[in-house]
Design brief:
This protein has 111 residues and is mainly alpha-helical. The protein has five helices and two strands, in the order ββααααα. The chain has one domain. It starts with a strand and ends in an 8-residue tail after the last helix.
């Protein structure tokens, strides 16, 4: 099944059977998984899959949103991403999850 933006472009293909039958310990974990899935798709998309200007808008929008979270929520998301990375079997996706906190502004820049 496809998730479709209001303008009719397909954003992401998802196996709904996996989503429906999976159990997450919390809504926060489920949303973190969904966010990572969408951003993994956007990050790896080619020009024919997704307009690259739209891809930049999506990633910049997410970076702005998550960087503005209160410290406790940022720390929770960082911990969830770490848990996800530990169990990830795809090395490229694991690297993406490990780099997510810094790449999306969840951690302050070190001097």
């Amino acid at each position: 099944m496809s998730v479709v933006w209001w303008d009719g472009r397909t954003l992401l293909l998802i196996c709904w059977e996996t989503v429906v039958t999976s159990s997450y310990p919390s809504l926060t974990r489920a949303l973190a998984e969904a966010l990572a899935d969408v951003l993994w798709y956007v990050d790896g998309s080619e020009g024919e899959q997704m307009d690259q200007d739209d891809a930049v808008k999506v990633t910049e929008g997410v970076a702005h949103l998550v960087s503005a979270l209160p410290s406790d929520q940022r720390q929770e998301l960082i911990a969830l991403l770490g848990e996800m990375a530990v169990t990830e079997t795809n090395p490229a996706r694991r690297a993406f999850l490990e780099e997510f906190p810094e790449g999306f502004g969840l951690v302050d820049d070190m001097p």
